[in-house]
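Sample entry (221 residues):
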Amino acid sequence: MLRKITRAYAMVAGLMRFLAGFISGLLALFGYWGYENYIQEKRPCGGHCGAQTECVNELCQNSDAPSKKRKKRRRSRRRRKKAVATSTVDQTLEPALKTPTGKDLKSISKGPSLKGIDRMDMNEADLPELNQDLVEKRYRAKDSQILSCIAKARSGWAIEKVLVKVGFRIEPTGQIKKVRVQAPTLMQNNGLHTCIKKVVTSLRFARSSRSLVISYPYRLE
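Predicted structure, serialized as tokens:
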């Protein structure tokens, strides 16, 4: 009787060990399966892309086919190459500045002498003289045009320093008929006096008792 009980107990114990091992195996199998699914989901396109393929926008494509990123990189490279080529062409087409000689830089004057005799009408002898502050204010309003004439006259030349003197005579009538410009020879040859004269003679002032001679220097570097 005792032997039967011992055998039954041994059988139950063996069955329990078998069930425990079986359950442990199932748990390990399910754990491995779950881990593989987790890793698979973390991979691009769920890890479904095979050899010679790559995941692009959650789709498997041949690795030989250019992706959008590659296309963007190629476009940006083409733009950079085009920009470099354009700048190179611009630098090539831009003419080199000419180097002036001592003769070119020699300062000369163009225009009539500003001296003269006022011919006054006795009926206008009581007229006031011109206000120099007003004259300067109106003249300075033309500075941008004068500077434009200077820049145009020295365009294409490697001149570091420029001294230009602009002188003019305001007649008692308020008109300016005489304009004298002192500047380097090359700038005079480029039409500096003609350009400045056109700007200055456009000024008009009130009648006065006598003429007024004004001179303004321009020092540019």
